[in-house]
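S2.1 Query sequence (DNA primase)
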Amino acid sequence: MTKEQADNGRDDMVIDGPGQANAVPDEFNANYLRIYYGKLFPHADMFKWMSYGNDGKHPGCDKSYFGRREFSFTLENDIYIRFQSFNSVTELENSIKEKCPFKIDIGPVYSVDPAKRHAYAQSGDNVFTPVERELVFDIDISDYDDVRYCCTGADVCLECWPLMTIAIKVIDTSLRDDFGFNHILWVYSGRRGVHCWVCDGKARRLTNEQRAAIADYFYVYKGNENSHKKISLPGLVLYPFLARSYTEVLKGFFETKLLPNQNLLASEERYEKILEMIPDASVASELRRRWQENKRASMSKDDINIVRWEQLKSILQSGKQKMQGLRRCVEEIVFSYTYPRLDMEVSKHMNHLLKAPFCVHPKTGRVCVPIDPNNCDEFDPTTVPTLSQLLEELNRGGPRQDAENEWDRTSLGESVTFFRTSFLQPLLKSCKEEIENSYNAKLQQSKNALSW
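Output structure tokens follow.
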């Protein structure tokens, strides 16, 4: 992998062992992909999305808009092609079908056609610069390895996947309620995490500094593998976003799901990690003594994790504990184990690449399908359609013989329909209104200038 590739957030190059970097499932190969891109990949929908209404006949449309968008292809044997651009849906579709990329990444909209950047560079003027890019977030389950015991690395199961569900709930709510964004697309990465695309006009035009400010707004996870205290919660009380996240999402998930499912307090090795987060050594020692001596808790009908957690809360939140740090400690433990862990660099920089929806992940063969944030509890990554499954469905005729589109004959149809109806159509309606309003404002400005 080149440094350039590493800097652009690739998540499909996890090396599982010697010589495994290029290993792909038996069900994943260029021939299968060629059929997928020929029959199932929604080229037209991707084009409409990336055009943001500028593909119409309205005089306010920017005809060069789509042609200034960077696309990156990763081909078989890790051949990596950046700064590609296309002027129409036909060009995009033909190139994808011809090159059959193992992965498609989407970059920013530049000031000039990225494919012609060298010509502009020779002119001496620094005119090749990103001017628009969706606000994006990348969350990987592998960043939670210190708080899950069922899986490690890129592996994921239904015991730990809810950590991704919680991340979606927390970030999506804040993007809508705190920042006023409406057009947000959540996508399964195909293997170990989720991607978020915020596509409102005001989000796409954010500067790097503004993006960094939004990323910092979400950032409370300060720790590393060598630090006991991984969370820094500022102020005497949680500010509204964190308080809402804690009371509405994180606390309940930690106590009813994560704590018992991951057995966070069941063994000495695991509960020591939590005791180390308590800043008062005497309090930690008291809990440690109680848990080591009171073996009857393990014989109780009640879950030992729940019993010990209630004991910890009782001591830390009792009236005797005047120290604010101890009362806050319960919240810090919950945040440490459940709060979204964002790849900050992905969100801060406009020129970062992110994998396109509806790609097929070469490590799993699974399609990068959209996730409905309103029903994300129901999303199961283990049932996401695979490339071989989709082709098998095509071969045997699929669920609907009378389907208008090929994908409606497969289990991918539901995902494409959701993408269209819940995300793309409302987005394009908003974009066309924005183009109309901007055009009318310019006309009025011109009239005012002439009358003056």
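The radius of gyration is 25 Å. The chain has two domains: 30-221+342-444, 240-337.
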